[in-house]
Specification:
With 172 residues, the protein is α+β, with helices and mostly antiparallel strands. It has helices at residues 23-35, 81-86, 89-97, 101-113, 127-136, 156-168; strands at residues 15-20, 44-51, 57-68, 71-79, 119-123, 139-140, 146-150. Helix 4 (101-113) crosses helix 5.
Amino acid sequence: MNKPFSLPGPLNEFLCIDVVESGEFHVGELFRRKFGHSPPGFGTHIVVFYRSASRALYAASYLHLWTTGTIGLIGGGCTDGRVLRLMSEAERSAIGDAGGLLLQTLRFAFDRNEERLQAFFGHCGNARALAVDLQAGFLRTEDPNLLVRWNRDFDDSTRASLFQQALALGPF
Protein backbone atom coordinates (compact mmCIF):
# COMPACT_ATOMS: atom_id res chain seq x y z
CA MET A 1 0.00 0.00 0.00
CA ASN A 2 1.27 3.46 -0.89
CA LYS A 3 1.95 5.95 1.83
CA PRO A 4 -0.29 9.03 1.80
CA PHE A 5 0.89 11.96 -0.29
CA SER A 6 -0.18 15.45 0.61
CA LEU A 7 -0.05 18.44 -1.67
CA PRO A 8 1.41 21.54 -0.01
CA GLY A 9 -0.63 24.22 1.69
CA PRO A 10 -4.18 24.87 0.57
CA LEU A 11 -3.87 22.84 -2.65
CA ASN A 12 -5.58 19.85 -1.00
CA GLU A 13 -8.76 21.90 -0.86
CA PHE A 14 -9.22 21.87 -4.66
CA LEU A 15 -6.62 19.47 -6.12
CA CYS A 16 -6.12 15.73 -5.89
CA ILE A 17 -3.18 13.81 -7.34
CA ASP A 18 -3.29 10.10 -8.09
CA VAL A 19 -2.33 7.28 -10.41
CA VAL A 20 -4.90 6.34 -13.05
CA GLU A 21 -5.18 3.19 -15.13
CA SER A 22 -5.62 4.88 -18.51
CA GLY A 23 -3.77 7.96 -19.61
CA GLU A 24 -5.83 8.00 -22.80
CA PHE A 25 -9.15 8.14 -20.93
CA HIS A 26 -8.13 10.94 -18.57
CA VAL A 27 -5.72 13.09 -20.59
CA GLY A 28 -5.71 11.80 -24.18
CA GLU A 29 -6.94 15.05 -25.72
CA LEU A 30 -4.57 17.17 -23.60
CA PHE A 31 -1.59 14.95 -24.45
CA ARG A 32 -2.35 15.11 -28.19
CA ARG A 33 -2.64 18.89 -28.00
CA LYS A 34 0.75 19.16 -26.27
CA PHE A 35 2.74 16.39 -27.99
CA GLY A 36 0.88 15.56 -31.20
CA HIS A 37 0.17 11.92 -30.35
CA SER A 38 -1.62 9.76 -27.79
CA PRO A 39 -0.20 9.16 -24.32
CA PRO A 40 1.67 5.88 -23.82
CA GLY A 41 -0.49 2.84 -23.26
CA PHE A 42 1.85 1.48 -20.58
CA GLY A 43 3.55 2.62 -17.42
CA THR A 44 2.20 4.79 -14.64
CA HIS A 45 -0.10 7.70 -15.41
CA ILE A 46 -0.08 10.43 -12.77
CA VAL A 47 -2.86 13.01 -12.95
CA VAL A 48 -3.64 16.11 -10.92
CA PHE A 49 -7.38 16.61 -10.78
CA TYR A 50 -9.01 19.97 -10.15
CA ARG A 51 -12.35 20.10 -8.34
CA SER A 52 -14.23 23.23 -9.33
CA ALA A 53 -16.61 25.19 -7.12
CA SER A 54 -19.46 23.28 -8.81
CA ARG A 55 -17.73 20.01 -7.76
CA ALA A 56 -16.88 19.03 -11.35
CA LEU A 57 -13.54 17.24 -11.79
CA TYR A 58 -11.04 18.18 -14.49
CA ALA A 59 -7.66 16.66 -15.35
CA ALA A 60 -5.36 19.64 -14.83
CA SER A 61 -1.91 18.11 -15.20
CA TYR A 62 -0.26 14.85 -16.28
CA LEU A 63 3.05 13.01 -15.96
CA HIS A 64 4.10 9.61 -17.31
CA LEU A 65 6.44 7.25 -15.43
CA TRP A 66 7.83 4.12 -17.03
CA THR A 67 10.10 1.83 -15.08
CA THR A 68 12.59 -0.58 -16.58
CA GLY A 69 14.90 -2.52 -14.30
CA THR A 70 15.93 -0.20 -11.51
CA ILE A 71 15.41 3.11 -13.29
CA GLY A 72 12.36 5.29 -13.74
CA LEU A 73 11.83 7.23 -16.94
CA ILE A 74 9.76 10.37 -16.61
CA GLY A 75 8.21 12.31 -19.46
CA GLY A 76 5.06 13.70 -20.94
CA GLY A 77 4.61 16.34 -18.27
CA CYS A 78 1.91 18.78 -19.29
CA THR A 79 -0.68 21.09 -17.79
CA ASP A 80 -4.02 22.10 -19.26
CA GLY A 81 -4.16 25.88 -19.47
CA ARG A 82 -7.90 25.70 -20.09
CA VAL A 83 -8.37 24.08 -16.68
CA LEU A 84 -6.12 26.68 -15.05
CA ARG A 85 -8.38 29.39 -16.50
CA LEU A 86 -11.37 27.77 -14.76
CA MET A 87 -9.69 28.33 -11.41
CA SER A 88 -10.08 31.33 -9.19
CA GLU A 89 -7.21 33.79 -8.92
CA ALA A 90 -6.59 32.56 -5.36
CA GLU A 91 -6.35 28.94 -6.57
CA ARG A 92 -3.93 29.85 -9.38
CA SER A 93 -1.89 31.89 -6.91
CA ALA A 94 -1.70 28.97 -4.46
CA ILE A 95 -0.50 26.70 -7.28
CA GLY A 96 2.15 29.24 -8.25
CA ASP A 97 3.27 29.62 -4.63
CA ALA A 98 3.69 25.81 -4.45
CA GLY A 99 5.89 25.73 -7.57
CA GLY A 100 3.26 24.68 -10.11
CA LEU A 101 1.52 21.47 -11.06
CA LEU A 102 4.47 19.82 -12.84
CA LEU A 103 6.53 20.12 -9.67
CA GLN A 104 3.74 18.43 -7.71
CA THR A 105 3.50 15.50 -10.14
CA LEU A 106 7.28 15.04 -10.03
CA ARG A 107 7.30 15.05 -6.23
CA PHE A 108 4.46 12.52 -6.22
CA ALA A 109 6.37 10.23 -8.63
CA PHE A 110 9.54 10.48 -6.54
CA ASP A 111 7.71 9.97 -3.25
CA ARG A 112 5.94 6.84 -4.49
CA ASN A 113 8.86 5.21 -6.31
CA GLU A 114 12.28 6.34 -5.07
CA GLU A 115 12.74 3.51 -2.57
CA ARG A 116 12.48 0.84 -5.27
CA LEU A 117 14.38 2.66 -8.02
CA GLN A 118 18.04 3.63 -8.17
CA ALA A 119 17.46 6.70 -10.32
CA PHE A 120 14.94 8.68 -12.30
CA PHE A 121 15.74 9.94 -15.76
CA GLY A 122 13.86 12.63 -17.59
CA HIS A 123 13.97 13.58 -21.24
CA CYS A 124 13.41 17.32 -21.56
CA GLY A 125 13.61 19.69 -24.48
CA ASN A 126 11.53 22.56 -23.10
CA ALA A 127 13.20 25.41 -21.16
CA ARG A 128 10.21 26.01 -18.90
CA ALA A 129 9.91 22.32 -17.98
CA LEU A 130 13.69 22.14 -17.51
CA ALA A 131 13.54 24.85 -14.84
CA VAL A 132 10.89 22.87 -12.94
CA ASP A 133 12.77 19.58 -13.40
CA LEU A 134 15.93 21.13 -11.93
CA GLN A 135 13.90 22.57 -9.03
CA ALA A 136 12.52 19.06 -8.38
CA GLY A 137 16.02 17.64 -8.02
CA PHE A 138 16.99 16.53 -11.50
CA LEU A 139 20.56 17.21 -12.63
CA ARG A 140 21.87 17.83 -16.11
CA THR A 141 23.91 15.10 -17.78
CA GLU A 142 26.36 15.12 -20.67
CA ASP A 143 23.39 14.56 -23.00
CA PRO A 144 21.66 17.95 -23.52
CA ASN A 145 18.12 16.52 -23.15
CA LEU A 146 18.65 13.76 -20.59
CA LEU A 147 18.33 14.60 -16.89
CA VAL A 148 18.95 12.39 -13.86
CA ARG A 149 17.87 12.29 -10.25
CA TRP A 150 19.95 9.81 -8.23
CA ASN A 151 18.04 8.11 -5.41
CA ARG A 152 21.19 6.88 -3.68
CA ASP A 153 24.92 7.49 -3.65
CA PHE A 154 26.70 5.42 -6.30
CA ASP A 155 30.23 5.00 -7.48
CA ASP A 156 31.11 6.41 -10.90
CA SER A 157 30.87 3.00 -12.57
CA THR A 158 27.29 2.42 -11.39
CA ARG A 159 26.26 5.94 -12.38
CA ALA A 160 27.78 5.45 -15.83
CA SER A 161 26.00 2.12 -16.26
CA LEU A 162 22.59 3.53 -15.27
CA PHE A 163 23.13 6.56 -17.49
CA GLN A 164 23.98 4.32 -20.47
CA GLN A 165 20.81 2.27 -19.86
CA ALA A 166 18.68 5.42 -20.04
CA LEU A 167 20.60 6.88 -22.96
CA ALA A 168 20.20 3.67 -24.98
CA LEU A 169 16.41 4.02 -24.80
CA GLY A 170 16.45 7.26 -26.78
CA PRO A 171 13.76 9.89 -26.23
CA PHE A 172 10.97 8.73 -23.95
